Amino acid sequence: MKYYLLLLTFLGYYHLAEAQDITVRRLPNEVFRNVKKDNNDTTQWLWKRGGLFNLNVSQGSLVNWAAGGDNFTLAINSYFNYYILHKKGRYTWDNSLDVNFGFIQTTSLGSRKNDDRFDLLSKVGYKMDTANKWYLSGLFNFRSQFFDGLTYSGSNGTLSSTFLSPAYVVLSIGFDYKPKPNFSLFMSPLTSRWVVVASNRLASKGLYGVPAGRNSIGEIGAFASVNYQTEIMKNVHYRGKLDLFSNYNNNPENIDIFLTNLVSFKINKYLSATYNLDLIYDDDVKLFGDNKNSPALQLKSVIGIGFLMKLTPILKTPPPPITLPQAEPTPLPLPQQNI
What pLDDT was estimated at residue 29? Predict the structure, then answer.
């Protein structure tokens, strides 16, 4: 019986040594083996930036024209957009800047500004689902203008706006729905908006919902923003944005509307026809009507043919994964077994 026990003990140690030897021989293969990555787990780029620039110029002149009209007209309208996008893992950061400016010169009306706006948007999101559709997002928006704006009664103009008067600052936390790369819907039930009237000349009039004598007012309400762009057909592109805001403390049923639309018809590489349509309604902007003290729907429509250039998107991709060189494992000698 004693010999049988010694034999069983020896066989157990032998099989244990053999198993350890196989494990040791497999280690080099495990170290140098490539790691397979799922494409859905990584993004194709970290940073993306690009934009668009559009300039339309029209000029007309009349000499001894019986039908009448201005002897000279000159109109210039420009639009600039630039965006910077970032995504990494479950996080996204979208930034865009829109700038519009227009100018018109006529012999009967003189020089007038017919468009002036800059709009800065920044949005940070955290992906909530595996389908990449719903994001928990924070949004910052700043909108104002550069130069003095006048409202006219005949040939007389009255100052109605200027730089930072008004200016709108929006801070919002909500949900961002992105079913497709060219569409997003941001919704927030709790949004802070500040209306700024920096000019003391305008602040004394109590415009834009800011009490007379004050330079700003804070509002709490609900906010929604829709961004959409698409190619309607070959060489015809559409880009639009709609912002809606309801002030909980002051006539929440009167929703503020800010809508911009741009349709471009590409003629060749740099020449395009464009159509802009902007709609704004804010019941706190009481500059219209017979007595210049009523709100109204503001509409701007511009058609032009001119220079259109898309800024080529620049991508910054993630660094390639580090792969260790392949190496054939060197078989290790079997341990000598002493009986």
Answer: 42
Q: Locate 225 and state its tokens.
A: 């923003």
pLDDT score of 149: 93
One domain for residues 90 and 185 = yes
Q: Which of 35, 40, 3 is nearest to 326 (CA)?
A: 35
Q: What are the tens digits of pLDDT across the range 139-174?
A: 999 999 999 999 887 777 889 999 999 999 999 999
- Residue 21's domain comprises 1-31
What are the start-end ranges of the E strands in 62-164? 72-88, 91-106, 110-127, 134-144, 149-153, 156-161
C-alpha distance from residue 242 to each of 53, 119, 170, 270 (Å): 21, 13, 14, 28
> Is the distance from CB of 80 to CB of 55 less than 8 angstroms?
no
Q: Is the pLDDT of residue 293 over 50?
A: yes
- CATH of residue 73's domain is 2.40.230
Look at residue 9 and tell me if it is in a domain. Answer: yes
**Three-state secondary-structure class, residue 322:** coil
Fill in the amino acid letter for 73: T
Phi/psi at 316 (5° precision): -115, 110
